[in-house]
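The records we work with from here on pair a chain with its fold. Here is one such record, which you should read through line by line:
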Amino acid sequence: QVQLVESGGGLVQPGGSLRLSCAASGIIVSSAAMAWYRQAPGKQREWVATIMQGSSRNYIDSVKGRFTISGDDAKNTLYLQMNSLKPEDTAVYYCKALGYGSWGQGTQVTVTI
């Protein structure tokens, strides 16, 4: 059974940075297709970034050049480094093992003055 636990969210000013973590069990992060999604208030959940087998990365256009998805083999953890944050990045962020149905509880990111 795949279990994912997100952490690292918080309140940050525009231009600031946060690093989100997703601790995984039941799956090997470096061997899987992993993704980050987000859901802003009143909006549908949207895909943010994907990493395939620890190497190939893709991003939604709005975060390219600002966000980096990566994995840590030793900790079996997925990360999302978020720099130059904007108010429109405010959302609950979720990690996902693609092909598996389970979602974590998410972590709230709020970007505000």
About this structure: The CA atoms of residues 94 and 110 lie 14 Å apart. The beta strands are 3-7, 10-12, 18-25, 33-39, 46-52, 56-59, 67-72, 77-82, 91-97, 107-111. The mean pLDDT is 95.
